Amino acid sequence: MLAPLLRELIAAEAPVLAAHGLTMWGYVVLSTLDRGAMRTQAALAEAINADKTRIIPTLDELQQRGYIERFPDPEDRRVRLLAITESGRAVKDAAQAEIQRGEERWLGELSLDERRMFLKALRRMAPDGIERRA
């Protein structure tokens, strides 16, 4: 039951992200970095459950657009710290707001009690680190 719903939600998000010049991975990276800087690209990849070599092009693109910064760790110059920029936060927030409006249309199909129970169940089942919105 969840797979078709998930496919529809992803399909609904794709044009929103495209309108903001983001890919799904780009949005995931920005959302994760908005919760705090990452010490390494490997740590970011682990946090978003992605292969560290496959996110490099996404990080390159986000950095080129000025949405993230990668800079040497002062304690270990071999390590690259990653952080979201104000520009990255602005584009992420704009895309997120539009996505949330779409989610509200879906949740609007439920009664208030159904909605509370549904969101409570999702929060309980969500892995740690997943953004939890009401």
Automatic annotation (TrEMBL):
Residues 1-127 form the HTH marR-type domain. SUPFAM superfamilies: Winged helix' DNA-binding domain. Pfam families: MarR. GO terms for biological process: response to stress. Gene3D superfamilies: Winged helix-like DNA-binding domain superfamily/Winged helix DNA-binding domain. InterPro entries: HTH_MarR-typ, MarR/SlyA-like, WH-like_DNA-bd_sf, WH_DNA-bd_sf. GO terms for molecular function: DNA-binding transcription factor activity. This is HTH-type transcriptional repressor NicR.
